[in-house]
Fold these 3 entries.
Entry 1:
Amino acid sequence: MLWRKMVRDVLESKAAYLACLVVISIGLMVYTSLNLTADNLWQAKENFYREYGFPDGFATVKGIPEAEIRRLAALPGIDQLEGRIVQDVRVIFPGREESTFLRLVTVGTGQGKTMSKVKLLAGLPLDPHQPGIWVDPQFLAANELKIGEEIPVIVGGRKVFLEIRGQAQSPEFVYPMRNAQDLFPDPRSFGIAYLPLPVMRSLAGEGAQINQLIFQLKPGFSYQDVESWLEPRLERFGLLALYPAKDQVSNFILNQELSSTEATANTMPLLFLAVGAVILYILLKRIIEQQRGQIGTLRSFGYSSREVQAHYLSYPLIIGLAGGLLGSLSGLWLSFPMTAMYQAFFHLPGLQGNFSLDYVLLALLLSVGFALLAGYFGSRQAMLLSPAEAMRPPAPPSGRHISLERWHWFWRSLTVQGKMATRNLFRHRQRSFFTFVGITFCFSMIAVTGYFNNIISVMIFDQMTKVQTHDIKITFAAPLSATGTRRELLKLPGIKRVETLLEAPATLKHGWRERETVIIGLGRDAELFNLLGEDGRRVLLPERGLILSSQLAEALGAKEGTIITLESALLRGDSISLPVYTIIPQYMGINAYMDKEALSRVLGQGELATSALLVAEEKALPLITEKYREASQVATMENRSQLLENFNEMMATYGFTIWILAVFAFITGFAVIYSFSIVALAERKRELASLRVLGMTPGEVLQILTFEQWLLALAAMLAGIPLTLQLISLMAQAMGSDLFTLPLIFEPNSFVIAAVGTACFILLAQWTLLRQIRRFSLVEALKERD
Amino acid sequence: MEVILTGRKLSKSYQLGEVRVQALRDVDIQIYQGELVVVLGPSGSGKSTLLNMLGGMDKVSSGELFYRQQPLHAMDEKGLTRYRREAVGFIFQFYNLMPNLTAWENVHLATEIAAKPLSAKDVLIDVGLGERLEHFPAQLSGGEQQRVAVARAVAKNPEFLLCDEPTGALDFETGIQVLKLLRKFSREQKRTVVLITHNAGIADMADRVLYMRDGRLDRIRSNENPLAPEEVSW
């Protein structure tokens, strides 16, 4: 019978319980779907890495003879070591403006190979005597290519046609990015191709040397051991980079995605569950106060306090169960499209949605646990009442003067409604506190959402419109003479401005800290690549010294004036020391900047250019692209509008996530305020009805409740500002990486949006209240005694 | 006649908000098997408190209270719950029905936990509500609601009934109907009924009348010839 009572009670306040149910469901949907997706991702990664032998370490060199490789393979700690040629080549698609690249990676074709195998998904084996390649399926799909077709590429300055013999996937290129400056892979303009070493040699010329080593460790050896043995031996072959598996770009990003997914999966739901639990707690406390008489009656005819408490625990239990079931099952369902979405980003052959009830059960346990906890604390106090006490109406809540009344000017300025409301705030401290926390929470969530929305535009548009203002960037295959190149490019029709850059890979060291980066040498009169300081103004390059991006400065622990040691394979001598001139905020990439001439002097190789930035009339742009597309000196050509478009496309996926967050924030905020308002109304029905009897209009009565809410909301929003900043900085730390950082900018806009949003659902909640007050039956409300 | 409840020097005080209330002072009382007792007194005289003590709703502050040989004053919450479950049937002035359970469900709620309950439906038919089983309290008149409350108390098949102003919220006619039901229970089943009221008219139907004032038992009057409920008036 008590079950029926519970079900009918719940149905009576269905809106409030529904709000709570929705909040819990959202939390568990996030929990289940993200955890399942992360598991799917992890499982697919582990299987693929294990079966296809992901290497433990990588070394990039200028060139190394094969005999040397055999010697290195015999080093202690090394289980397997293999050399290969890795080279990016341009693909020529007739009629296409944007540059397209394939990364050619040589692979062994022999049997018994266990490291970095390539999984052939479709097609024929590679033939060491035929210029055929395997290509990653995403590149094929994005460019509408089929097995059997030929791709025209420029290798070693010649245009050759490579036959696509199959489509294949390697664990090393699960997330194929051309360089660390790119934010996202773009399968249309970049792909991976695998080919036998002899074929590569015949294409690139016999002089082509092995330029990358991959190795796996023997059990019991650490990467650090092997690194210290390898590094000195590789130096004379022009060691450019030596890094462990965890720093390999594709693997790094995959792992980062995994850990951030897991972190979100295990923190965000707790937030929602906590909100749901607080709502349940308040609702239950209210219903128990309201049903004091019923509790007394139940006790009077022999229900024990345990049975009565069990009855009241059944309310949160049913909400917890329903929320848990709804949330976890929808999460289970959602994990399939989410996993499918990841398939588009991470090319793991075994990646698929899996039907698993583990998280459904865990989610149920979690939600029931949270609900019962809320229920226990919500019902505890009432259960301590003796039945006779429960039968008596509760003693009137203590009516005392509050400390705020000492501020006479404030207190006198309040209307009677205002005074009632203010005293009430302090009388129901607990609920005021939870309302305060609830409003703070949803205010901050909306503000964070607004911040991300704004910040993405800030990041992209700052970078694109203020920092890099060129139309085309041409990167040369090898350094060229700066003056000559500039003169050559200026002859182009429609050209407006040409600036050359000198980019030098280098290791910067400060004390024990070091960082691999690219030093970008700019002209002192550069206009197409601007360095902006904190205040958004241009920073002028010093004659001597480095400008560091803030990210890099932090990694090195460097400040203005710190002396940095610079090492580079391009350097004539061993190393040189330079002071840090200043530090600039940079959201994308970690770079160091120098005056181009100073950098040339340091490198001691004359005045060189590694790339050029161009501004030209719009109609001249296609012509320029056309002219240089097949030039052998040109390695890559980046069209800026195309880049901007890619950015926007990719950010749209972020935008989607952000909007989901915003919707969650709205629902949660509304649920909290709405359910608390309903509770406040029900609790003070008599009091408010009495005021109506005295002659107040529904609007005037509503004022008492709303005054309370607005007062709380104001305080909550103010408290929400520092909380938002704290959240943003936490999220910025969690989401930021070497590739990009989230700038911590105070964005007043976000707070305005958040305040308006919060006010919106407070108003919405109050509107439902007003409707209820209008419907008050005065006689009923006054007569009611339960 | 067999004594079922014996109280010696019963006292009770409790805290209500910021006030301490001395509700019962040194009350000596005996209740016999099968009698209909009316406790009479103005409001605040301690009758409800006495009823709560007798019904095991609350513990005495001092004194001794026995149900047959069982010391209620020494029982823990568990024991008192069992006592209320098995021995007592309560009827309240404001019926105290569960507003969202039907008449039948309200009665059934009580029989679910009783040891030897009567059929909820039979008892409701008995109190004249056979046609109203599926009605919610809000769909019933005050008299009907109180009859559901009587049915709820009786259906548990308790040793005795404790009634707190059972006619207090009813008009005269319906009040008489409820009193008839109580009298019927007392006479036909030979069970004890303790009824508290401030309505002196009702006292005429009692076997004994206990007068209360200021938390004390003022005097006791025995009625040689109690009136039938139809004959009382107020």
Entry 2:
Amino acid sequence: MAIPSSLVTLILGMALVLVGLWVGQNVNLLPVDASSNAPVYDDLFRVLFIIGTILFVGIVGLVIYSLVRFRRRTGDLRDGLAVEGNLPLEIVWTAIPAVVVLFVGIYSYDIYERMGGMAPLNDHSLHQAAALTPAAMVHSAAGHQHGGSSGAGMIQPGFSQADSSGSALALQQVSADPDPAEQPRVWAGIGPSRSDEQLFPVEVTAMQFAFLFHYPEANIISGELHIPADQPVELRMEAKDVIHAFWVPQFRLKQDVIPGQTTRVTFTATRPGSYPIVCAELCGPYHGGMRSTVVVHEPDEFEAWLARNRPAAPATVASSGQLPLA
Amino acid sequence: MTLASPSDFNPPAPPGLQPQGWLRYFSFSLDHKVIGLQYLVTGFIFYFIGGALAGVIRTELASPLSDFIPRQTYNEVLTLHGTVMIFLWIVPVVNGAFGNYLIPFYVGARDMAFPRLNAVAFWLIPPAGLLLISSYFLAGGAAQSGWTAYPPLSITTPALGQVIWILSVLLLGGSSIFGGINFIATILKLRRPGLKLMQLPMYCWAMLGTSILVVLSTPVLAGTLILLSFDILAHTGFFNPALGGNVVVYQHLFWFYSHPAVYIMVLPAFGLVSEILPVHARKPLFGYTTMVYSIMGIVVLGLVVWAHHMFTSGTPPWMRLFFTIATSFIAVPTGIKFFNWLATLWGGKLALNSAMLFSCAFIVNFVFGGITGVALAQVPFDIHVHDTYFVVGHFHYIVYGGTVFVIFASIYHWFPKFTGRMLNEHLGRLHFLLTFVGFNLCFAPQHWLGLNGMPRRVAEYDPSFTTLNQVSSVGALLMGISTLPFVINVIASALSGEPAGDNPWRALTPEWLTSSPPPVENWHGEAPLVQHPYGYGEAAGILDIRAASGQQIWTGDQ
């Protein structure tokens, strides 16, 4: 008995979708998630993985089926069927990918929005800050393009300044311009949007071939990044020599560190533990060795770490010109 | 411009100063077929050099420590590998070699529009390549800032090697532009009278689109590299932040060429596959018109997607959104092409020879690379895997799994035309098997490595990645071994292969309608007018199948 071809196609299509869904749900290719935006990222990854699996398995299946089913038997010198095209078919396989791609694009835009990547276009705070302070002009002279210094677009306009005394970093002036029209947003790493929440600032200096982390409040300089869990952290990153990139795979977060432009990245770590910090931009012979560690502490443990490493007396530090290394 | 009929191009004897015999391959020959083969053989020499460099990289990465070559040398090697493979192997071969050999046949001409410019374009390549390779042996070594040469790294690394790199790429870019101008002129102006644009074989359209990209975008790279050389030599500050320059501007200018460069490498491959599949499937190319429009769609979109290489470089958000959407949409015309090829296969009489196997493997590999490409276009996805081995895996699926597989398919397909002899099919299939397995073994694991934390361009890595890196290195070794049957096959068959006759594939495109190898100026007598280059296939009634209509054959219901 002949089974109608449309039924076969339908069943095959459903099987294909089920295979894709199963693979997407059960094959894990990603490292552990340790920041609040990592699960969001993983959702996007899963969707792309499912769609990709369906497409790939389907097309490979078609190719293999064709190669077997339509192979030329020896001695058969005839031609195939003289079909030169089929307009409805063309429309179908133009429309379906267009819809899929549009869906993926909009979905990933939404994901990016949730991760806080889409800084508002009217964010002029940096330029205003640049106009205010000569030091900031130095930064934006090199990176004088709108958003250029906003890094991953991950600046929170008008975030409340946690500490204004610690550092002379001119970009702290950014906080001078809260735009009342702006909705509170989630930024870069992500995490829930609580604009009243204080960002814990850390200044990052990237150089050949190391990262240095400076805690402006506690006046600590460290070769490892120690941060508290469940608190938004803002890294203000500067490069001394060439372009580097700050990447923590477990945070699903990467930002180039660009000489002449301060870049920022904001995230909330969620899972205490130690994770690698990797330089992802070719920066010279020891690029592969330019690694560090981020240690995510429980909040009270982090306070203890801060207390342990805080310089004994700031006066001594200033006179000796040395900063304690943690 | 005067119009010339083919009979005007019919001098009584070949030009006197053109050497004949084997010597012409080492001469400033004006014959497009000679130039095509010059491109092809030169390209293969550089392919083996670039492959050896890849072997060095994979050997270094077989262990997590930097223990095989000095770190600085490693960076020189990866820079040379990228530059050689792109500028001296893929671009010259898919454009210069096959373009020069085939386009005049396809338009029914006796040569390219500008034969002398054509020879100049080829003869820029060997000195540029030698210059690039020789920089490795000079003081300070070769360039070591990657094929991207991002400042400030390219400004701070040893200047001599970097400047030679720039000079070499400028020469190769010039060669590419000369070629592009020549192809546009040939396709648009040298068509045989009576041959309409929409009757051209698909490779002509691919080369037309590619050449438009070459002519529009390569000058931007040239200008950028000249500015970079000013920064290095004259200490100007275009891209030097210490002097008020902006490093991100360089990235924009660089990728304005270097993303279209991907299409410069794959569009001709799309064209070649469109020639190979119908012949070996004995079916017309499915959806000719949509194939043409999709090529032009790729050309237009390909020019406006460059900043997707810069999602972590501090680009403004609107730019990220725009480039995400534009990049994703390039999947639509690309998808159309792949569905049309699948439809070309469907219901055909597929000869499972090496050309067909390599072409089908191209479809599989490229679809995989395309899927990871659409994923990479999504900003949040890219932010995690940018500059990691995921990207390395992705683009090798595109340029190797895509284009290089097509180059091999094309060699198996056109070798009888080049030499008049067949390649050995057994060696060909062995070559295919080794290449396919080795390639996937080498590059598939790299996606996982990238997702889990291995950045690209490193000589040392986290020891937890050792196993998969070793798998990848074994794959690379297999790929190296796979060239042996190929080289043996090509040399042995060129000398003593089975005579092919003029048209062993019973193909309809014009290059097969002359002798093999073809005479100087391509045809004795007038060029044939081929208005149906894909006119294969028999009417449904003649076929011995139960299907009552094409629709039923289509859905596989027989």
Entry 3:
Amino acid sequence: MMASSLALLPFAGNFLGRAEAADSKEAGFNGRPNSGIKGDYDLVIAKGEDPYNITVKAVESMGGMGRFVKKGATVLIKPNIGWDRTPEQAGNTNPRVVAALADMAYRAGAKRVNVFDITCNDARRCYANSGIEAAAAAAGARAYIPDDWDVVKAHFGLRGAASPMEDWPILREAVECDTFINVPVLKHHALTRLTLSMKNLMGVCGGNRGLMHFNIGPKLVDLTRFINPDLTVIDAYRVLTRNGPSGGSLDDVKTLKTVIAATDPTLADAYAARLADVDPMAVPYIKTAVKEKFGSADIEAAKSITIDA
Amino acid sequence: MKKLVLLRRSSQLIFLSLFVYILWSTTYPMTGIFPPATFFSLDPLLVMMTSISERVIVAGFLYSLGMLALAAVFGRLFCGWVCPIGACVDMAGTTQRRKAVLSDEHNSLISKPKFYILTLILVIAIYGRQVAWVMDPIALAGRFVSLNLIPATTFILNKIFAILIRDMGMTGAVRDLYHSLKPTFLGVKAYYFSNAGIVLIYFIAVAGASLILRRLWCRMLCPLGALYALAGSAAPFKRIVDKCLLCENCGNECRMGAIRRDMSYVRGECVLCMDCVYRCPARGVRFGFGLPRPAEEAPGRDAISRGQFLSFLTASAASFISIPFLKADPAEASETDDARRVGIIRPPAALEEIDFKDRCVRCGNCMKVCVTNGLQPVMLEAGYSGIWTPRLMPNIGYCEYKCTLCGKTCPTGAIPPLTLERKMRTRLGVAEVDKSKCLPWAEGKECIVCQEHCPVAEKAIALDVDPVSGLQKPRIVEELCVGCGICQNKCPVRPLRAVTVSPRVSDRTRV
């Protein structure tokens, strides 16, 4: 509503021309560049009783947070805060996982850690009832409701109009951060079978998001290509197995007590799919990613480690 | 003596700020110090007329009796020192310096209509319809603050922050400040209320009337003022003149026209503004308990005589006979006078339509508190008797599944307070899929956005897989649907949504 009403003000759109300048800087790709940082392992699977602890162990096995977060960096942790649900209902990312990542980011020297998501239910209720707002605040991170009017229009450069995500509004703060940590929760979704890291990135998109569901595979792969998360940590501590993505019934929740970490979103998603007993190739965005050789879904070929913590 | 005037002005300002503060804090997560219904529950006109028309004791009945008792002792202290509309009227009135005083006859004439209005409201209430909301100053002020003032202020502030942050690049402390103000003070989404302009025009007319004559609304039209005038017509706390130079300053300056040429005054018209104390060159005027001096209680009739009032009351009492004919049987009425028939979705578990419209005082609390901004004021869609009642408009905002705030803020129980358990089972309506618009049905495109947002744990939207295309097509499971409207709200089809909520099935509360 805010964005559309702003468009009515002739001066508000490009006052001082800043928005335009940022968009047309390269006249091409204007997303986050791929940092190319790799972990010690391609894939880390950590299992254990405490979601905080296993998250810490998983990232340590990757080589530690210092590898991804430089001193003085602005870090964005992007969990799933989409629903007005409690942590037990598993509709959102586990707050303890978010807290662990925020703590590690600060220890690695981050200047600032932001936590946000564009929610599906009322944002204030989602932030409060998911427990993420409180967990982030306790870690010193800033959990805030992002501004849906502060967006950049996605341009893919050479791919250009060929991308189904060309011109899609993406939150500026999601693009302009130094480190992007994507923290989805593994859960059921009727259209894509599972909600995983690439699907979680819909939370930084503005616009009529429902339309992304058509042709969703290529759209999510291009969205991930645009955001280029530096680290993907999939929360599979509590997993919603039915009636996702919002859930609501505790009968649908299975406790797997697992956290998956990877730098390649496709690999993380592929492993998470297997963990949920779903053929990775049945998940549209993994299928597209493999077809377009965006990352790898070959779990056997990946250098992986499983930790019990 | 100026001190008393300053004291009165401060009191007005404090209560006006308090009024705005309470309504501003009427938002999730409800961390305000005072309950949202405070001012409305203290309003004897709203509370009593609703109680009379609905034959119930509305919450706040005792408080409002207390307010009347206060008036019986101190007169119209509320009007002069507390009333938010009174404060606005005074502020507007200060811009014109014309004398408020007219001849005694004109003053008396001006003061009368409000009593007739009050009597009319009372008679209609006895007949079983509550129309106090039309002219009650507190409801009027509440609507203005909730539907005009707060939305306009937050809209402008949001715009300013947008320009500062996005266009001028102030992404440091300014953005942090904005983000901390956003969830509480500014609101996550800009408040928007359809047709709220009429509310604004009404408020401007009421406050602006004082440009013609100071306190014109309070003197002439305000039914709450009339009620307090009656209650305070024999108040022991009164104006006492110890010394008089016959300069007529007090009478010339009286904004209520309460002081007569012969220096006597009409207690029911005096709002204790203290101007006459301040203006008296002899410093001979004071307010207090005490015996009247001959000069101030000279013969003269109050604005409305006891006989006039009693005759109205008798007429009202006599009209009890006609109640069976006038308060239509709800079951019968629901066929002819039903929101369902005209497609209006009422808030969760709202009273049956005819009672809802009589119980609702149009204070605007439910609309202000609605987290999604989905509750909107009705114009004429529910008839004249439905003006400014709330309706859910899912295209603007849906009913948040685990939210019970509208019932909690309603001062009269038109929307009953619900437990979360009951709220989650309460049907506002039922969703319907328009297969001629729905993407999988009509265009062969993947979607399922309605299904993914459905808050019911078992999903009130089932997906049937098309055997040929493999597309998942939504189908409403009517037994599970609560009609919250999130499916309609999130449906990506434009301009008309492919899923809509119809109130043809809805759980309304029977009185």
